[in-house]
Structure formats: structure tokens, C-alpha cells
Write a structure and sequence with these properties.
The protein folds into four domains: 4-125, Response regulator (Rossmann fold, 3-Layer(aba) Sandwich), CATH 3.40.50; 141-305, 3-Layer(aba) Sandwich (Rossmann fold); 307-390, Helicase, Ruva Protein, domain 3 (Orthogonal Bundle), CATH 1.10.8; 392-401 and 410-473, Arc Repressor Mutant, subunit A (Orthogonal Bundle). The chain contains 21 helices and 16 strands. The chain has a five-stranded parallel sheet, with helices on both faces. The chain has a five-stranded parallel sheet with strand order 9-10-13-8-14. It has 473 residues and is an alpha/beta fold. α13 crosses α15 (352-366) and α19 packs across α20.
């Protein structure tokens, strides 16, 4: 590590010495200041790579220093020292732009991890762009604003609540914040809070010890341990039950978790980002979401705009999605006709970008002659007319059963068993129905794909795509 300078602002000599002794092995040269005025003077004449300040100073508040650094030295990460349990002051410092906070009495490992992460900030910003990284597409003012905010939030360790309608790209935004910050080389662990059964939540989040319950044959780390050094993304955080909200709040505040069956807590170094399409403030008012957890997660809120708010970005999104589908399937990239593009721009998109992806995937398989027409989109307002164009079901195309004892045909399609209703995995259930229909058509045509596609009422290209996607090739 290159030589670094750190500004240590505290009126207690033993605190300054403790911090200096902790940072010295990291190759960090510490300059002390006892007051707010001394700190400002040092900042004027000396360059620093990191600053840590107590909140209570003889001639002012550490919050004033945070605000001063944000204005005069925006690239300097500053952390604050808070009294144990003083969450309100820590949250206020984070809102003002502090990189992170540490509570007295210090956990030296936490302090070292925090400083190491802060020093990685500038190195992260100096990296050359990586073409393999996901990108936030769009040139509209709304998306440009989100892009600027992501870059700013990546320089902080503040918890962020990402709000917005379903399908607006909240996980993508969280991933970009992670990849643009000092934790980029560590795991990004997304978890859908509504997908974990309530009785498994504690063991999933915090892990468990061998023998803690039936089936626990070995120690297992939880999501916090999996995200160590990186970012834990809590999607649909509003779906957490109240008992789990209490335990999550403690884990975030104490930066430690207790695995199920363990006698001691395990320290964690994790940045928590969360998201919800629901109004958390309203859920707090009706008592279904804890107010203290809401304030802890919602230190900074970032709202993602709906697709209706930036329709000018639809052509760029369409081009990117169709290009991805073409690469995934190995099929030629179709062109979007002006009428189809106009239909997309006029559509309200209640499902936002996720719905756009679904519409384009469907039209990609239905289109002919390398052109996506407006009719291929099957938008809801076109549903009535599209029903008239839809091919008859397979059963209707079958020959009627013979009325006499005619001899059995040489080829008899194999009977496909009736599928049972889904018990939780609707997508898998629908895929099995699709596989069964395709298999029935292939067997009825002696595996002639062209004839099977005609029997299914789709193009040969569409059948090839479905066979590849369903793993039936």
C-alpha cells in the first residue's frame, strides 16, 4: 500500500493514540487535531487520504467538519466516531456525506476494515471501464440523474433504500452501487425477502451451528457471512415478518450476527442495501413495518423512475434487449418496424422494463422475415384482435377418432400425462406444459421440425428458439 495520510480529530489523546496504533501497521501516517479549527487548518495546508472525527469537539460538532469536507474536499472519505448506541447521530452524519461511522468502544478489526475500504475508494474510481459490467441504459434526464446518484452513493457506506415500481431495475441499481464502490472485489449477495419461508429466515440470514436442529449436520454460514466484505441486497424488504425485522435491526446496528445454536456473535463487515416496490412509510404508519428499522435502512432513499417517465429511452432499451436475445439464441437479430416501435412508445408499461423484456422475448420468437411487426408484440390493447389470429389448439387440429374398428395406424403419438396443478413454482409448471405440447407436435410429425412448427402455429425459427431455451435440442 502506498503511503497515506489520515487526519484524526478527537480531543481525547488516548483515542487519537489508539487510532494511530491501529492504522500504523497499514502504512498510514496519522496527523492529530484536537479541535474543529485545528482540523480545518490542517485540511487547508495538507492533503489527506482519510479523515476520522469525533462528533463532540470542544469548539463545535464533527457534523460541521463532515459538511465542510463534503463542500471543500468532496473526494476525501470521512468517518465519524459516535457514542455506543447513538444511531441518530450516525445516521445524520451519513446523510451529510460521511463515508461510515464507528462506535465507542472501538472494535479494532471493524476500524481497520472501515479504513481499508475508504482507501480503496480512489483506486476504484481510477479503474478502467469494464465492458462486462452491467449498465444502466438510457440518455434521458431521469436516467442521467439516477446514474449520477449511483456514482455518489457508491462512495459511501450508508444504507440505501431503493424504491420504485416493480420491474424498474432496483437490483441492477444496487449491483451498480456495489460495483462502483470500494467493495467491488467482494461478493454481492441478493436475496428476495419474500421468497424465504418464515421458519427458515433466521438460519438463512445468520447461519447455524451443527446440531442446533434436526438436519443441521454441519456448521453453515448465512447470507451475512456470504456477503462478508461486500454487499447484502435485501429485495422486497417489506415482506420481512416483524420478528425477523427486530433481529435484522440488531445485526445491522451491532455489525454482528449470532448463528442459530451459537453461544457468541460473529462480527460482520457488510454494506446493506434494500429495495421495495411498496410504500414503507405507509407500512410503518399501519404498524406492519418497524419504524426503527425503516430509519436504519432509509438513511438515503433512491427512487427509480417508471418506464412511463422516460419513454425516449425505449429505442435504446429495445436495441439492447433484442441484441442480447440474439446472442443467447444464436439466431439473427430482427429489426423493429417503425409501427412496432411507435406501439411500444405509446404503451403504459405497468410492468416497466421487465415487462418490456417479456414482450420482446415473445415477439422475438413470433416474428417472421427478420422484422418485428406491431402485431408480434401482442400488447394488451391488441389482445382482442390477436385472439382472432391465434392458431387453434392442438386438440382441435387432431383427426376425429375413428367410428369403426379401423386398423391401428403405423405411428401412434405417445400419450403425454396430464400435469398436476403447480404447488409453488408456476414458471416451472408452465415450462412443463410447453415441453409437453412441443413433444406432442414433434411425435405427431415424426420429428419433422418444420411440420411441428406449423402444427403448433409458430414459425420454424420460433420452434428452434423454444427447443434451445427449454433444453430439448
Amino acid at each position: 500500500m502506498d503511503a497515506c495520510n489520515a487526519l484524526i480529530v478527537d480531543d481525547e489523546a488516548d483515542i487519537r493514540e489508539l487510532i494511530e496504533m491501529t492504522l500504523l501497521p497499514l502504512g498510514i501516517h496519522c496527523l492529530p487535531a484536537e479541535t474543529l479549527s485545528e482540523a480545518r487548518a490542517l485540511l487547508k495546508h495538507q492533503s489527506f487520504n482519510f479523515c476520522i472525527t469525533d462528533l463532540r469537539l470542544p469548539d463545535g460538532s464533527g457534523l460541521e467538519l463532515v459538511a465542510h469536507i463534503q463542500k471543500q474536499h468532496p473526494n476525501l472519505p470521512v468517518a465519524v466516531i459516535t457514542a455506543h448506541g447513538n444511531v441518530e447521530s450516525a445516521v445524520e452524519a451519513l446523510k451529510l456525506g460521511a463515508f461510515d461511522f464507528v462506535s465507542k468502544p472501538f472494535d479494532l478489526a471493524v476500524l481497520r476494515d472501515m479504513v481499508a475500504a475508504a482507501l480503496r475508494l480512489n483506486r476504484t474510481s481510477e479503474r478502467s471501464p469494464d465492458d462486462s459490467r452491467p449498465a444502466l441504459l438510457g440518455q434521458s434526464a431521469a436516467i442521467a440523474e439516477v446514474r449520477v446518484l449511483i456514482a455518489k452513493l457508491a462512495r459511501s457506506q450508508a444504507p440505501i433504500l431503493i424504491s420504485g415500481e416493480s420491474g424498474t431495475g432496483k437490483e441492477l441499481a444496487a449491483r451498480l452501487i456495489h460495483l462502483s464502490g470500494p467493495r467491488a472485489d467482494h461478493p454481492f449477495v441478493p436475496v428476495n425477502c419474500g421468497a424465504i419461508p418464515e421458519h427458515l429466515m433466521e438460519s438463512e440470514f445468520f447461519g447455524y451451528k451443527k446440531g442446533s436442529f434436526t438436519g443441521a449436520t454441519q456448521d453453515k454460514g448465512g447470507l451475512f457471512q456470504a456477503a462478508q466484505g461486500g454487499t447484502l441486497f435485501l429485495d422486497e424488504v417489506a415482506d420481512l415478518p416483524l420478528p425477523m425485522q427486530v433481529k435484522l435491526l440488531r445485526a445491522i446496528q451491532e455489525r454482528a450476527v449470532r448463528p442459530v445454536g451459537a453461544s457468541a456473535e460473529v462480527a460482520t463487515d457488510v454494506r446493506v442495501l434494500s429495495a421495495s416496490h411498496k410504500n414503507l412509510a405507509a407500512l410503518v404508519r399501519d404498524g406492519s413495518f418497524r419504524q426503527d428499522l425503516f430509519y436504519r435502512l432509509n438513511v438515503i432513499e433512491m427512487r427509480l423512475p417508471s418506464l412511463r417517465e422516460h419513454p425516449d429511452d425505449i429505442p435504446e432499451l429495445v436495441e439492447a434487449i433484442i441484441g442480447r436475445l440474439s446472442r443467447q439464441t444464436g439466431l439473427p437479430k430482427p429489426r423493429m418496424t417503425p409501427s412496432a416501435l411507435a406501439a411500444l412508445r405509446a404503451y403504459a408499461f405497468p410492468g416497466n422494463i421487465r415487462e418490456l423484456e417479456n414482450i420482446l422475448e415473445r415477439s422475438f420468437t413470433l416474428c417472421e422475415d427478420g422484422l418485428i411487426q406491431a402485431d408480434d408484440l401482442l400488447l394488451p390493447e391488441m389482445a382482442e384482435s390477436s385472439l382472432r389470429l391465434r392458431p387453434a389448439p392442438l386438440d382441435a387440429e387432431r383427426e376425429p377418432p375413428p367410428t369403426d374398428a379401423a386398423p391401428r395406424r403405423e405411428f401412434e403419438p405417445r400419450t403425454v400425462p396430464i400435469l398436476q396443478p403447480p404447488t409453488g413454482n408456476l414458471e416451472g409448471y408452465l415450462e412443463e406444459i410447453e415441453k409437453a405440447a412441443i413433444l406432442r407436435a414433434l411425435e405427431a410429425t415424426r420429428y419433422n421440425k418444420t411440420a411441428a412448427a406449423e402444427k403448433l402455429g409458430i414459425t420454424f425459427r420460433a420452434l428452434r428458439y423454444r427447443l434451445k431455451k427449454l433444453g430439448m435440442e
